[in-house]
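Q: Could you fold this chain for me?
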Amino acid sequence: MQTGTTTAPATTPGPSAARRRGPAAAVLIAEARLFLREPGSLFWVFAFPSVLLVILGFVPAFKEAQDDLGGRRVIDLYVPISILLAMITAGVQAMPPVLTAYRERGILRRMSATPVRPSALLAAQILLHGAACLGSALLVTVVGRTAYGVPLPGQPAGYLLALLLSAAAALTLGATICALSRTAKAATAVGSVAYLVMMFTAGVWLPVQAMPDILRRVVEITPFGAASQALEQAASGSWSGWIHLGVLALWTAVTGVAASRMFRWQ
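A: Sure. Below is the predicted structure, expressed as structure tokens.
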């Protein structure tokens, strides 16, 4: 990976703009190949959320309309929650150990002598894990629709916007963990704690819509509490609340800037 990254810019003729794009493209291609060689990460990000949805569908009560949920079923709420689970897994469990392991093994130090910038490596990881998240979201939606008759999002544009902002928030948060953690063990430890907290705020154990009012208001200022509400509103046919979208955008901006400024090669 390092050889292709360091030689491409020097041997490829062309304008300076093309040479600047060369290292980033080489990093993306190399990281994509490595990413596809990790079936464990692909399973937990891409397949497991759909598997979880299928398992929950075996609970008879989850397929019955609930008055306290506005006539909806619990399984309907778990489609966006399962999608968020994929994003949380990608952002704080799968991505941070990869980059911190690169730092421990000295790969990042050697890359620092090349035209590749930290932002290129972070962007490659974010793009790859983001693509896995979106693929998982599509699979969950298809499984929910075909297996349990979960309605498709009533507001597709709002749903897509909330989906993209949710993925961005998860992955920039993961990039911040990468920047702060000096070792893979530290990244795994921090990611594990963050994973449990985010699963709760996303509603994996108790849907946000079913939480007591005070708890729900607190959870809604977290990225995945806001994401859960935004996705649920768009799924039910309403435009996602601007407050929830704003919370997601703010978390994405803050963690994205923090990651890009604090990331170090060694």
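A (continued): The longest helix spans residues 74-104.
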